[in-house]
Amino acid sequence: MCGIAGIYNLDRRTSVRPGLVSDLCQTIVRRGPDDEGTHVFENIGIGMRRLSIIDVAGGHQPITNEDRSLWIVFNGEIFNHEPLQAGLKLRGHQFSTRSDTETVLHLFEEEGPACLRHFRGMFAIAIWNERTRTLFLARDRLGIKPLHYCFDGHRLVFGSEIKAVLAAPDVPRAIDWTAVDALFTYGYIPAPWTVYRSVRKLPAGHYLLVDEHGVVEHQYWDLAMGPKLTGTEADIEAEFIDRLRESVQMRLLSEVPLGAYLSGGVDSSLVAAMMALSSERAVNTFTIGFGGQTGNFLDERPFARDVSARYRTNHREFEVQPDVEEALDAALGAFDEPFADDSIIPTHHICKLARQHVTVALTGLGGDENFAGYERYLGFRLSTLADRAPWRWLARVVRPLVRGLREEKGGHYRIDHLKRFFAASDLAPAHRWQQYNATVSQPERRTLYRPEIAREVDFEAVDSAGRQYFERCDAADPLDCALYQDIKMYLPDDILALTDRVGMWHSLELRVPFVDHTLVEFCARIPASLKLRGGEKKHLLRRAARPYVPASVLNHRKQGFASPMALWLRGDMRRLTGASLHRREIDRVGVLNADQVEARMAAHQERRQLNTKLIFAALMFQRWFARGRS
Question: How many CB atoms are located within 10 Å of the residue 213 CB?
Answer without folding.
Answer: 9
